[in-house]
Write a structure and sequence with these properties.
Elements: H1 3-14, E1 21-29, E2 32-41, E3 44-52, E4 55-58, H2 64-83
Antiparallel strand pairs: 1-2, 2-3, 3-4
């Protein structure tokens, strides 16, 4: 494997969420309480899924914009928790 390929592989592995900390974070999603299931790895929040209205939605079932909004809400909630 070339040096460039190894460097690319290492950058990719740094983004793999399985090596991070998993969290269940309470958020208000579309003005309704929900629980975001997220993994925090290398300072990046990866959305794993959402519990909303008694339903579980996997990250694959969520649009990119919904995942981005959930990640923003989860980051804010985690920062509030850390400040307490």
């Amino acid at each position: 494997m070339s040096f460039d390929a190894c460097a690319h592989r290492d950058r990719w592995l740094d983004q793999v969420p399985e090596y991070g900390d998993e969290h269940e974070v309470g958020i208000d999603f579309n003005d309704a309480p929900a629980t975001a299931l997220v993994t925090l790895a290398n300072g990046v929040i990866h959305v794993d899924g959402l519990l909303h209205g008694g339903l579980y939605l996997d990250a694959d079932d969520l649009s990119d914009s919904a995942q981005q909004r959930i990640a923003e809400l989860a980051r804010a909630a985690l920062l509030r928790e850390a400040a307490e």
